[in-house]
From TrEMBL:
This is Exodeoxyribonuclease III. It comes from Cellulomonas avistercoris. Pfam families: Exo_endo_phos. Coiled coil: none annotated. Its cofactor is Mg(2+). Keywords: Hydrolase, Magnesium, Metal-binding.
Length: 270
């Protein structure tokens, strides 16, 4: 079984101070897809390289902002950064890596392509929403290419879009707000209904509501499970057929959280 975890860490240094290292020791993912790293290559390597991870990372242009990364126990044969666009006004929101799965028994060596992706939240009525829609269009183009390859591909990360009403606790109060706009959700409809990508968090996590992956630090959102499901693992049909278990690693209590997001962990029978 290959264990793939995705999580928005809200700063790698802060996450490790809050206990992310202990979570890694317990969960032992084979592939770790990170968003909002908020650090340099050196800072990321200081936290993960000593433990033997292969790393691919693109830091954000603005210091202390953005940044996405792939950390893998499997060797990387290729790394691709970005989508050929700067419409988000920042870098490091799409990192793609080809991982080599060794031969085992009668199975020949295979390649698993993994993507760590981040879409910014955006604000209605501002240029940031135009940038988000433009970036979503580029993501759709790349997803079309990837699913058309017929290979084993997982695209994971914080998309900052709740797909359905069951994916957000207070969906009525968030109609018309970024993250739950019909225009945003329509992109996910196309990915799933037209392109054939599988939403493993929903496929393996039950019909909902939830399980949610993000809760505000403020108030009693976490205690009341007033969250959003905005972190995803999207798989091509070929890989989805091998997915067995999806789990949201929700912390035991508010104080035990190392981020305002919880990791989404999927196990694949490769």
């Amino acid at each position: 079984m290959l264990r793939v975890a995705t999580v928005n860490v809200n700063g790698i240094r802060a996450a490790f101070r809050r206990g992310m290292g202990e979570w890694l020791d317990v969960r032992k993912p084979d592939v770790l897809l990170l968003q909002e790293v908020r650090g340099s290559d050196e800072i990321l390597a200081d936290h993960l390289s000593p433990d033997g991870w292969h790393l691919a990372h693109e830091a954000g242009h603005a210091k202390g902002r953005a940044g996405v990364a792939v950390a893998s126990r499997l060797p990387m044969s290729a790394v691709r950064i970005g989508l050929g666009t700067d419409v988000t006004g920042d870098a490091g929101r799409w990192v793609e890596a080809d991982l080599e799965i060794p031969a085992e028994g009668e199975r020949a060596p295979r390649t698993l392509t993994v993507v760590s992706a981040y879409l910014h939240s955006g604000t209605v009525g501002t240029p940031s929403m135009d940038e988000k829609y433009a970036f979503l269009a580029h993501v759709t183009t790349r997803l079309t290419e990837l699913v058309g390859s017929g290979g084993l591909v997982v695209v994971a990360g914080d998309l900052n879009i709740a797909h359905r009403e069951v994916d957000i606790k207070n969906w009525k109060g968030n109609r018309g707000k970024a993250g739950f706009l019909p225009e945003e959700r329509a992109h996910l409809d196309r990915w799933f209904d037209e392109l054939g990508w599988r939403d493993l968090g929903r496929d393996l996590g039950g019909p909902g509501p939830g399980p949610f992956t993000w809760w505000s630090w403020r108030g009693k959102a976490f205690d009341n499970d007033a969250g959003w499901r905005i972190d995803y693992q999207l798989a091509t049909p070929q890989l989805a057929a091998l997915a067995r278990v999806a789990t949201v690693d929700r912390a035991a209590d508010y104080e035990a959280r190392f981020s305002d997001h919880a990791p989404l962990v999927v196990e694949y029978d490769l």
